[in-house]
Structure prediction request, 574 residues.
Amino acid sequence: MEHAPNLFKSQQPSHRRFEWGDGVVLLAVGVLLYLGVRLALGAPRVVQGPAISLTPAALLAYAALSLGRMAAAYALSVLFTVVYGYLAAYNRRAEYVLLPLLDVLQSVPILSFLPVVLLSLSVILPQGVAAELASVVLIFTSQVWNMTFAWYQSLLTVPGDLKEASTVFRFNTWLRLRTVELPFAAVGLIWNSVMSWAGGWFFLMAAEMFTVGRRDFRLPGLGSYLQEAANRGDGRALAYGIGTLILIILALDQLLWRPLLAWAERFKLEMVGPEAPVRSWVYDALHASRLAGWLNRRVLRPWGGLLDAALLGWFSVDPGEAAPHGRRSWAWPLAGTLGGIGLLYGGVRAMQMLSAVPAAAWGAIGLGLGATLLRVALALALAMAWTIPVGVAIGTNPRLAAWLQPAVQVAASVPATALFPAFLLLVLQLPGGLSLAAVLLMLTGTQWYILFNVIAGAAAIPQDLKYTSDLLHLGGFDRWRTLVLPALFPFIITGAITAGGGAWNASIVAEYVSFGGRTVHTVGIGALIADATATGQYPRLLAATASMVLTVVLINRGIWRRLYRRAQDRFRLE
Prediction:
């Protein structure tokens, strides 16, 4: 077969140019970074931390506290994802600001600015509240970006016939969201939620065991328990902590994520059902339970109906029609003027701080950006090389997924930074030393984002398209070229964007490592940021972080955003 038919829509791609929103967002983020640095200068010099108990009874309480922080951050992430992604996809004026802001936020190396966040919050809030809020914010930043990109990607690729049907039936915003957009995005959102929880454990460990000099910001939880056990050399307590973490991950997989994936099977766009659908014993038990049925009839449906009626009245305007024009409000121009003045003032003060950075430091920042960029590119290439075939195998084979999905979640959730020092002892003797080890640690921060998105994309391929490719006798290469890769393309781009941000973030801990009483570092922007944080050189910290953010934004806008548009125009299921 010389030319296999393409099963996806094909149009000429469109690209989005750089807009004024990019400059405003970059200026705003720079001002926020400057304000955080200025607040951190007034933080208390000594902070007393909590006493961490290693008894098994305390471990149960710590696990509950960690789960509470994760759940709070995830709830905030879901709310942010739905609102933010919807505005970015459908409001063209908001898109000019929201999309570059999303690019900037997901690229900010939050691990490097955790000291600034904690120190600045400790100035205006009590210590315990500041540490708790900082931990939730840190977990939120690790969970939300991939979910927001997945939701935004789904809104851009909703099939045109579904949009036309919603317009014909005059669905308002709420009906279209509930009956078209959320069901279409369900599979991708659930798989990205699994990834968000896995990444959240990594950041939770960092937040719960954080100290800066004589300031102890540790929180009672699994992270501080594991750190305390390692510091005391208590192998039994360390095993208890790791075992508890693994048990929680497996329990969440069986009690939450597998049932949700089984439930989401109903939302696939396909004419025939899958040969081996995702199964969950919890979902089957709830489906057959009389008590669950009674609660659904007597509680969930009535309250859901009231909420549905309220939202139907709230979103009364047809999304296809413009809202009527009224009198112009003076509030928005006034807010914009005041905001612009504040941004300009903050920008001037930030530039004054940056002017204190010597030319040699700027040269080192440029060299570090180039070195880290090469490592990030290599880590992404290695990640795609194995995650695409493995993700397709898991996403298209539910029986294989039932065995491998929990194992992948456990592997993605284990905090690699805890094992990195021991790994360094082996790698530092090899050619490349820390440069090679840094790429491998970046790989642990990138591969899971791509893998989970590929699994979601493979699982969302309609069964009728698979049958069509069988009827056309498409071989392995033609099947991948005309069905698998086009179907995966939007998901791969979503995973690559968040994975790239994760790789840049991981450079903070990959290029500058302290263990065994010594510090090892290599050339890279992450090493410069970590060193500036450790030595309190805040102008260098601001300069290096702002340079990293600007670089990542340029890459996202110049490469990934163009590929996003290509996915929207060429690889939409119709």
Q: What stands out?
A: Residues 73 and 137 are 7 Å apart (CA to CA). Strands lie at 211-212, 215-216, 512-515, 518-521.
